[in-house]
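Lecture notes, unit on protein representations.

Consider one protein chain, 337 amino acids long.
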Amino acid sequence: MDTFHTKVALITGSTSGIGLGIVDKLARDSRPMHICLTGRNPKKLQTVLGDFKRKYPETEFSSLVLDVSDSKSVLFAVEEIRKRYNRLDFVFLNAGMMPQARVNWTNCIKGFFSGNIVHMFLTGDGMLDAVTDGKTRDGLSETFATNVFGHFLMVTELQDIMGGHGDDDRTQLIWTSSSSALTQLFDPDDVMCAKGKNSYASSKYCMDALSVALNELWNSQGIYSHVVCPGVVVTSLTNALLAQWLWYLLLPIFYLLRVFIHNLTLTVNAGTTGLMWLTKQKPEGLDYRTKIFTRANWFGPYLEFQMVDVSDNVKDVVMNQLALMRKRILQQIQGYS
């Protein structure tokens, strides 16, 4: 496989939902590209890979087992990526999880009558009651490890095969973030949200802060990072909140609500619009503090751009804490120092 001249895209969490949609859109694109799918379930990964190879026989695909919540799995995957590729052009940091949560119907009803329901749908603020997050075998909060740390560990270990100084040597790190990434739901003294109950929102805010920090460190090396909110998309992640049959029962109502609530993208095809838009931009021409929001109305998806609400102090705290965690975990794993 000649990956020196062929662009390489790697997608974490590519066996379902948004990740599956990213792979499909990249394969339908006219640009020559090698697409590497990753997932933590080997059997499911091979099934999805086979489906894509049959659907797009002219596109070059490969697969790699990767569980971003497990540092050893991340490091094994890094070794394999190094053997296969000498470049990475697009790295979609998409794999994610949401802790088990319940919809707070009381707050939703109150929000409806108070006029706050649109804000609640746009941000998730006050809509969910989350239970305590689990722990990984590395001792990290599970949601934080999956959504943030595993990806951070992977890209820092792959830094030397990313980027470059030629026009065709840029690497884009594209994070699947969320509109729930609110500063009031993040505690800089508890980066993992080990003591809080907003671990999903906290991890997404942490992701936004990390993206800013990585740009300031790596832009000079041709590595660029951006965060994208896909909107509310009905996937296996949202099925943890409501039963799948209930989502589909409510879909007509959600489509009507698009008049007022524009983050109801609902479908994977609409939700991946902003993520794919980034792959066709020159990243050095974009403001790295801008967050891309995929929205939708009755006419289809569109994009909005807002500045991330991340202070320099919070950005530095997040980066320093992640660096310390990385150092500790690498020291714990045999073969790394």
